[in-house]
Amino acid sequence: MKVVKFVDRALLLSDVQSLDKFCLKWEFGCDIFNMNRWVTPAISNVRVLDVSLYRPDVWYKLRRSLHTCETLELLELSNHIVIKVPNFVCLPRLVILYLNSVEFESNDSIQKLIYLALEINAPTLEYLYLEDLEIQTS
Question: Would you state the pLDDT for residue 121?
Fold first, then answer.
């Protein structure tokens, strides 16, 4: 697939650890293997992370390392992304949190997100957008 090869080469030739913004909007041919290969290294020092998937048969589960990304200022997640909020969340520079059409693993995850990520460990949060959130029942 040409898009996969292009992104692979672009990330290979750049210093992924110094990415300022990582934006991935993927519809056709999206697979979890490539998502993990691209998103996981980008999370470490990124300021802006924007990920959207548009395939109803594919759900992407976020990596735990995202929940403690000290450089993250804007997090935008849309469509077919599963969020499991761990017991510890620390996003000290997060200013904008945008969640649209994402799914939480449990009701507990939503409570943790609000309590841990927003009230305690995201002191710089200025904008919170939540729309069309779902909770997994199985």
Answer: 65
